[in-house]
Request: fold
Amino acid sequence: MHVEYALGLQARIIKPIPGAKVSSMNFYFDYSSPYGYVASERIEEIATRHGRQVHWCPMLLGAIFKVTGAAPLTEYPVKGAYALHDFNRSAREYKLDYVQPETFPIATVAAARATLWAKERTDPDSAEKTAALVHALYRGFYVDTRPINEARTVVAIAGEVGFDTSQVEQAIGDTTIKTRLRQDIEAAIELGVFGSPTIEIDGELFWGSDRLEQIDRWLTVGGW
Amino acid sequence: MHVEYALGLQARIIKPIPGAKVSSMNFYFDYSSPYGYVASERIEEIATRHGRQVHWCPMLLGAIFKVTGAAPLTEYPVKGAYALHDFNRSAREYKLDYVQPETFPIATVAAARATLWAKERTDPDSAEKTAALVHALYRGFYVDTRPINEARTVVAIAGEVGFDTSQVEQAIGDTTIKTRLRQDIEAAIELGVFGSPTIEIDGELFWGSDRLEQIDRWLTVGGW
Reply:
């Protein structure tokens, strides 16, 4: 009731309501995005501090770039060289391991579908397991240089965090999951998402791992 | 001596040397860049805190985009809408006035040339006057919606901060200044500059007004 009131009154300025139930924070990302990896390692701490839960929203930048006309960062002259330097520097600041993958960017459709499937499970520990899967896939790629573009690597990693591998394998090829992912990406674009990571807080979008401090300030003061 | 030693030893990790002379911080910007405006209002405070002086480096994104293949932010579908929202939100966070100009982006060659001319003056107060000119041009455009794409507006604003208007008028059309600006832009691209603002600290580049806190941390700990 109080939450609805605050939201309805002024969409951009959300005051934290004492005693309100935990609300979410949507984290849109592509597994091929180094900035997505860096932010994925820090977002839960920020969310938790503000009584929010991270809702993992896998997406495919390739599909988004078709709409926006953008290209993978590393393909731009000059900007690409900066990006390669900055991926590493961004990770180093937060003491995160980071190895620039030789094959980059990669297709992440299998990883995205597996994640979408995981987060739709209804077992009591599915939220924790989905978060574990996101981290394991990202670290698999950016720390251990595992080829997460391959479905079998995704299945293996999902198994390592406790999912049933045969179920995951089936999910990656499942028509419903394929359709759902496409619809989710279309909805994300409709919302205004164009890059990875994008964090959505009550309709407000923040793009980039370098906006996490701003998100922290935004949630602290209730927006501006 | 000590400064050279620290720089030579490990280019990326610059330790502040007690007693070293004030060093600079290069601020590359285009007057048509809202993020350049936002950062211009905050960079001097950060520089001063770390014993550095801001060296204003006007450039033209149009010339850079020819090399990088990028386009003005607002021309990208989806991303453009985010940018328009974020320009204002970025300014609001720091209590800066911001009015989205109706004509945007604009040609800023006259403003860039005037600034380049100003910073090459050798009168004792030229550094202060150049900084004043940068702020007056940016605020003229983003606060008072003055058409700084027009040479006469640039000349008028330069006069308001204490420059000789006839000298400024002449400088805007001067062949040496034209050539110098083109060379400066080429050198900036060579260095790795591709967007506005880009802040260079001892060879390390930071792109975006959202990196000022990171710059502050970088200078505080001496890099990572």
User: Anything to note?
Assistant: Chain B touches chain A at residues 64, 67-70, 76-79, 81-82, 85-86, 89, 92-93, 189, 192-195, 205, 207-208, 210-211, 213-214, 217, 224 (CB under 8 Å). Chain B is about 55% helix and 10% strand. The beta strands of chain B are 23-29, 52-58, 198-201, 204-207.
